[in-house]
Amino acid sequence: MKIAIHSPRVSYYYGGAERYILNMSLALQKINKDISLITYNAPKKTRWFKEFQQKFKGKIVLLNSKEMNQKFGYFKDATKPLLWDLESKLFSKASKDYYENNKFDLISLHYATDCFGISKKNKVCLHLHGVPKKIRKKDSQALKIPFKIIAVSEYILNKWGNVIPKRVIVRVIPNGINILKIKQLKKSNDILFFGRLIKIKGVDILIKSIKKIYNHFKDIRIVIVGEGPEKSNLKKLTRKLSLYKNIKFFGHIKDAKLYNLIRKSKICVFPSYAKEGVMTTLLEAAMLKSTILASDSCSNKEFIKDKYNGIFFKPKNIKDLSKKIELLLLDQKLRNCLVKNCRKIVEKWTWKNQAKKILKVYKK
Hints:
- 40% of the residues lie in helices and 16% in strands.
- It is an alpha/beta fold.
- The termini are close together.
């Protein structure tokens, strides 16, 4: 089957959907040889994409766009749908000739308005990675175009459900994870957050919860890994609460260093409160045996069973989060039990398994 994976942003943007697309592409090429990744030839590419270029054995098509180059400064840090829509529109113009001259059995899309730029002659499968704050008229119109939709969680599907036409084939296939080797390291770090630093990730809630228990844990060590528009605000909050000696910030770091940090951390905290599917970061923490403490929101329930393979706290609730952090820091036996159960579950969520399910939907 000749498949095109269409994603303008995957070459230059650090995000959960981009991580998903790169991992999915690598997994699909192992079971379906004719895979092409169609993306924007961005002036500056992510480390993720550069590493992908070395591993991927399919075809990578880098398309140039003078208009996108002119707007690149805006696109590379974009967090708002209007900019994503503009990027989608400009990349559709850049890719039009390519699709007219190259035929595919299926084009895999990963942002709703990308559907407008693909000729109706092509069969399209749209992956839904998240939910906009408000489903707009153009979003509803876009979802009428694909003949197949894959949602990364039941939560995401339910949020979109009313606007998906009944004729569309719909499946839920969660995110995947690669099997990672376990190297036991001393748990020298207490708490880790890693992910994009945007408001819905709730990192400010984590920082405020640390202040609440600080008098009982004055030597507590927290590491926050990631970049995003909220980073400067989070650093200011850390200084304001006099936690700068306890909380360290890192930007984007190589996977090997990140994986070591996860292994060294007693607890990985996921305070997101809106829009998210089952996050890659959550699965990585599970695979690398760090205890998961997550908000009881979004798609987290589809992977975490409270008090079995992780602990939930009430979304946006500083008091409850601080209470759960204290519980886990004081109870190593509980942490060990949660980690053991989590590892059993996550081993079923491999990209090898998820890619087979995705290809089955593509071929149906």
